[in-house]
Structure formats: C-alpha cells, structure tokens
Amino acid sequence: SMQCLPGLVLALSSLLGALALLQLSLYLRAPSRYGKHEERLCRPRGQLPARCAWFLQELPSFLVPALLLALRSPPRLEPLGCRLLCCLFCWHYFYRTFIYPFFTRGRPFPLQLLFFGMLFCIYNGFLQGYYLIYCAEYPNDWCTDIRFTSGLLLFLLGMGINIHSDLLLRQLRKPGEVTYKIPQGGLFTYVSGANYFGEIVEWFGFAIATWSLPAFAFAFFTLCCIGPRAYHHHRYYLKTFTDYPKSRKALIPFIF
C-alpha cells in the first residue's frame, strides 16, 4: 500500500510554489488568451464548448483524491478534522465539476489551455489528497482549534462569494449572448474580480484550516494565477466602458 513520503510532499509543494512564480511572471504583463482577452484575429484552431471544457478540466481534482481515499487500506476515517478537510477540497471540486459547467455561458475554450489545466488538476489533486489521506496528522480536537475554525469560516465565506459572483456574471448574458457587460451587485460593487477574490479567500482559508505546506503552496498558486487575471479584467473594463465605476478596485476592496 502507499506510504507517506515527506520528501515527496516537500518536493511537490516546492514545485507548486515555483509554478506560481512562473505564472506570475508570464501573465502579469499580458493576460492568457481566452475569454475576453482572446485575440480575435488569431483564434486557436482547437476549441471546446465552455461547459465541456470546464467539466473535463476540473474533474481530476475531484476524482484523484477520491481514488486515493478508495485505495487506502484500511480506509482513513479518523481524526474527524482530517476527514472534514479532505471533504472541503472535494466539495469545492464537486461544485466546479458537476454543477458550475452546466450553468456557465462562457466562450469556447482553447484545447491547449484545457490540456495544461487538466495536468495541473491531476498534479494538485494528487498533492492535496496524498497529503491529507496519507501524511497529515491532526490531534483529535483539531476541529476546535482556532486555525481550523477560522480557516473553515474563511473557506465558506470565499466559496459563497465565488458562487454568488458567478451567478451575477451569468445573469449578465441571455442564452446565446457572447457580449461583455459591466458586472453589477454583490462584491462587484467594490472589485472587478469578485469571483477571483472569493476563490483566493477560499483557498487561503483552506490553507489555514489544514495548516500544511501543500495547501499554502496551492493558495499562493491561486493568487499568482487568477490575481493577474483580475487585474487584466479590470483594465479591460476601464478601457471598454466609458461609464465603468472609477471607484472599483481590481481584486481587493479598497486596496488594489
């Protein structure tokens, strides 16, 4: 059966941190070319409908930890804190895999980005699942620890912001529409990237609740990956809409 290898956890977490810095350097100056930032004159040849692409991309993040849990013998059911943390990760990706894609109205997704997205979800799904299922050691009262409770609250708050912001974005378009409009309501009152802000808060909450290197590396990766995208969305809105609210920030209310 699979054993816990702390050196493997350290190596994979460190690589994830390096990938985060690479993402930041690649996309801080120019956004990745899909959605509203797609080059109209040179669209990628291979594309999939957004619903299919999101389903395929996010699925490994749900399946890989579930498979690791199924393969563990005997099954790991204790302590409760460990089980809850693994469930939080799978809960997010259950939503992103089986619910979110069937409501999204996004543009077709480039196959190249889908491929790299799936690779990342396999990698990160393995790292987080492997650590929590085979390596993590928590005291029996971890569920009452301030790190767990505060992290859980942040996770739930972030997930709520993320889901609510996605709902507001969907309501901007009628079925079949592909035009972009100014997001209104919710946290969009204060930031252009409310959905991204919610996801960043969510994963930093998860990192605090697990108090682990893999989770902090993932939270840092999320910040470096979708933080710049929120910034470029903000610039796009300011450039495209003359009536765009000047008081809005890009990602963090009242700061940035």
From TrEMBL:
Domain of life: Eukaryota
3-oxo-5-alpha-steroid 4-dehydrogenase C-terminal domain mapped to chain residues: 108-256
Its membrane topology: Multi-pass membrane protein
Main location (coarse class): endoplasmic reticulum
EC number(s) given by UniProt: 1.3.1.22
Record field: catalytic activity: a 3-oxo-5alpha-steroid + NADP(+) = a 3-oxo-Delta(4)-steroid + NADPH + H(+); 5alpha-pregnane-3,20-dione + NADP(+) = progesterone + NADPH + H(+); 17beta-hydroxy-5alpha-androstan-3-one + NADP(+) = testosterone + NADPH + H(+)
Entry keyword NADP: yes
GO biological process: androgen biosynthetic process; cell differentiation; sex differentiation
A Pfam family it matches: Steroid_dh
GO molecular function, one term: 3-oxo-5-alpha-steroid 4-dehydrogenase (NADP+) activity
GO CC annotation: endoplasmic reticulum membrane
Presence of keyword Magnesium: no
Intracellular or extracellular location(s): Endoplasmic reticulum membrane; Microsome membrane
This protein's UniProt keywords: Differentiation, Endoplasmic reticulum, Lipid metabolism, Membrane, Microsome, NADP, Oxidoreductase, Sexual differentiation, Transmembrane, Transmembrane helix
Spans through the membrane: 109-134, 146-165, 203-226
The protein's role, per its UniProt record: Converts testosterone (T) into 5-alpha-dihydrotestosterone (DHT) and progesterone or corticosterone into their corresponding 5-alpha-3-oxosteroids. It plays a central role in sexual differentiation and androgen physiology.
Homology family: Belongs to the steroid 5-alpha reductase family.
Protein name: 3-oxo-5-alpha-steroid 4-dehydrogenase 2
Organism field: Dicrurus megarhynchus
Gene name per UniProt: Srd5a2
